[in-house]
Design brief:
This protein is mostly helical. The chain has one domain (2-111). It has helices at 2-21, 27-33, 48-58, 61-73, 77-95, and strands at residues 101-102, 105-109, 112-113. The chain has a three-stranded antiparallel β-sheet with strand order 1-2-3, covered by helices on one side.
Length: 117
C-alpha cells in the first residue's frame, strides 16, 4: 500500500509540473522555488508545536489548491505559481516519506516516523 501512495504522490508531483508548464514563467523558476516551502521549518526554532503548525500550513495541499484556483479565478499567474509550487513541493516530499507533522517532533508524521523502516 505504501508504494501505491508514493506512486499517487509522484503523479501529483508530475501534475504540478504540467500545471507549471501552462504558466508563462521560465523553467528555472520551478527549480529555484520548489524547495522554498521548507523555510516553514523555521518554526521548529520556537518549539515542536509551532514548528509543526508552520510546516503543516506550508505543506497542506488543500491550501495550495485554494491558492492556485484563486489565482486562476483572478487571472494572476504569480498567485497560480505559488499554488503550483506549494502543491508540487508537498507531493515531492510525500513521495520521499515526509508527511504532515505531529507536535511530538519533526520526525513524527502522518506517514509514519521518518527514518523508521
Amino acid at each position: 500500500m505504501k508504494n501505491i501512495l508514493k506512486l499517487e504522490e509522484l503523479a501529483m508531483f508530475l501534475f504540478s509540473i504540467y500545471l507549471f508548464s501552462q504558466l508563462h514563467f521560465a523553467w528555472w523558476w520551478y527549480l529555484a522555488l520548489i524547495l522554498l516551502p521548507d523555510i516553514s521549518m523555521i518554526g521548529y526554532l520556537v518549539n515542536n508545536k509551532i514548528g509543526a503548525a508552520c510546516y503543516n500550513i506550508a505543506h497542506h495541499k488543500g491550501i495550495a489548491l485554494v491558492i492556485y484556483v484563486g489565482g486562476f479565478y483572478v487571472h494572476n499567474e504569480t498567485i497560480q505559481l505559488i499554488g503550483v509550487i506549494l502543491f508540487g513541493h508537498s507531493s515531492m516530499d510525500r513521495t520521499m516519506g515526509y508527511g504532515l507533522k505531529y507536535n511530538e517532533g519533526f520526525k513524527f508524521t502522518h506517514l509514519g516516523e521518518i527514518g523508521n523502516k
